[in-house]
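Table S2 (text version). Query chain:
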Amino acid sequence: MKQFILIADDSDVIRSIVEQTLRLYHYEHIITAIDGQDALEKARTHKNEIALYVFDVNMPKMDGISLVKEVRSFDSSTPIIMLTTETDKAKMMTARDNGATGWIIKPFQGDKFIRVVEMYLKP
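Corresponding structure-token output:
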């Protein structure tokens, strides 16, 4: 059963904010990753259990867009939300073309973030 949310961000603060926001809205099954490579390993390990991915665009070892491409090679349908300070439309389109399904600009308001999460997770 798909129940986990995988968060990948190299910022400890952002990872913590995203995790706390999710927990505030009763999302308890959360996996965190410190960079793209860590996220890819965890995504492969838990691929049949992840209901939603939340990836930062700019991370060390593997950026978010490369991570989307890698994840899409073994998981074609789980929603992927990109978190970024980037407002570059070309980058957004590249992410979408590679399989990202949503985009949230940091900093974000918790209720707006949860609305996007629920758009992908509610039946």
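Notes on Table S2: The two ends are 14 Å apart (CA to CA). Strands lie at 4-8, 30-33, 50-56, 80-84, 102-105.
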